[in-house]
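Standup notes
- DV: blocked on the single-chain target, sequence here:
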Amino acid sequence: MKAVRFYDAHCHYSYLKKNYEGFVIAGVSMDYASSVETLSLKSENVLTGVGIHPWKVHEEKLEKIEELIGKADFIGEVGLDYRFAKANKELQLSYFTFFVRKAAENDMLINVHALDAWRDAFNVLINGGVKRAIFHWYSGPEDLLKDIEGAGFYITVNPSVTFQQKHRRLIEKAPVEILLTESDGGYEYRGKLLEPTDIINTIPFVAQLKDIDVEELSKIIQNNFRNAFNLKI
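- DV (later): unblocked, structure below
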């Protein structure tokens, strides 16, 4: 693997398709079409995830995605969204439970979206026997952080931590042992297209929040990423 300085645990890489030197990127997918495309972009520094986002479950069939799971490095982006998703909770839960079962059966990491559904998503993961999970762009309850840590799961720090007060407060409270960096690259947020390079400025900001040396935090994030994705390198 080429020299790596930064780790992006949640990126819609199929929307970007650019070379990001010095990054390892976990490419997540939204639906069947983006899952197929993400798989085609696998490389030494790009890990591939397949799944159906909760915003898409009412439009997608599980059978088609199931055929792709064995080709992927992890499952995601999947989960629950009680704020924006058009599908009802029951349909979302049925799809998410399916992916959780597949992750447990195949000992795969699952990359989770859980807006306004953090505790429900956590309970599904625990009941499903998942060993490795990421809650991306965590903005859930503060008291759930202890349970996430106890389960051996992770949360991601998004570049929005520099201005999004709730996300910042939670990152301040979270132990560094559960932190990963993410860009959510390919997603446009408040008029800005997010990219992996946004992580470069995120790490010093978080290091200051946590009162820790930048290099030390970088090493912790590297170790967390390798453990989360079960990388041997």
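- Follow-up: The first strand starts at residue 6 and ends at 11.
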